[in-house]
Design goal:
This is NADP-dependent 3-hydroxy acid dehydrogenase YdfG. Helices cover about 45% and strands about 20% of the residues. By secondary structure, the chain is of the alpha/beta class. β6 (about 175-180), α6 and β7 form a beta-alpha-beta unit. The N and C termini lie far apart (about 45 Å).
Length: about 220
């Protein structure tokens, strides 16, 4: 059995994707800072018959993130699918003219250093398997910079560039890297951007392995 590792586990999109990949037969590694949340999510997945385990780590702490992914692969099975979708902090959302150089340090660590560390931690296992998938989930500012949220606009653009380079470089090794852009809010009542709809879409991206960038719905004009 191989493992679906979710960085940014939460009760919305995270739980829905964990259910979808778990239902397909993968073990589930949940990675987040909050240990109580991890315990609650693990218990909920267990009620669905899904083998899941929580690993506490902070994406801003490279050592803890790397250790969590190593522990996940060792205890649950090689990580075949990695999803990077932690929710950015509110203080990343300053307007562009209120954003100084120091304000970009943490967003870039969150959206670039974290993904680089995560991918480097799981890539050897994917290569050993001969297959793998890396899924990035971002908001619309990744493709359409928004001066009201300068930190995420800059950091998501950098994350997108890194993900695209991975897509082009790893495709010959049967490792598929893709990005899903969610233009609006993730809401239970949204037709295309509900947690369950996005989870289905992410699973389809994993199985169909077609192209780099995908949209849950068209960007508004």
């Amino acid at each position: 059995m191989t493992t679906f590792a979710l960085i940014g586990a939460g009760p919305g999109l995270g739980l829905a994707t964990a259910r979808r990949f778990g239902a397909a037969g993968h073990s589930v590694a949940l990675i987040a800072r909050n240990t109580q949340r991890l315990d609650d999510l693990t218990a909920e997945l267990a009620r669905d018959g899904i083998e899941a385990r929580g690993f506490a780590a902070d994406v801003l702490d490279i050592e803890s993130l790397t250790a969590a992914l190593y522990a996940a692969g060792t205890s649950l099975g090689t990580v075949e699918i990695l999803q990077y979708s932690p929710v950015p902090r509110a203080d990343f959302m300053k307007p562009v003219l209120d954003t100084g150089a120091d304000d970009l340090h943490t967003p870039l660590a969150f959206s670039v250093k974290g993904p680089v560390a995560a991918v480097n931690a799981v890539l050897p296992g994917m290569r050993d398997l001969g297959r793998g998938t890396v899924l990035f989930v971002n908001g619309s500012s990744a493709v359409r910079p928004n001066p009201k949220v300068a930190g995420t606009s800059v950091a998501f653009a950098a994350e997108s560039a890194y993900a695209r380079m991975l897509h082009d470089t790893l495709a010959p090794q049967n490792i598929h890297v893709a990005q899903l852009i969610v233009p609006g809010a993730i809401r239970p009542d949204a037709e295309h951007s509900s947690p369950d709809a996005l989870a289905r879409r992410l699973y389809d991206i994993h199985t169909e392995r077609d192209g780099f960038r995908h949209y849950s719905e068209p960007l508004p004009d």
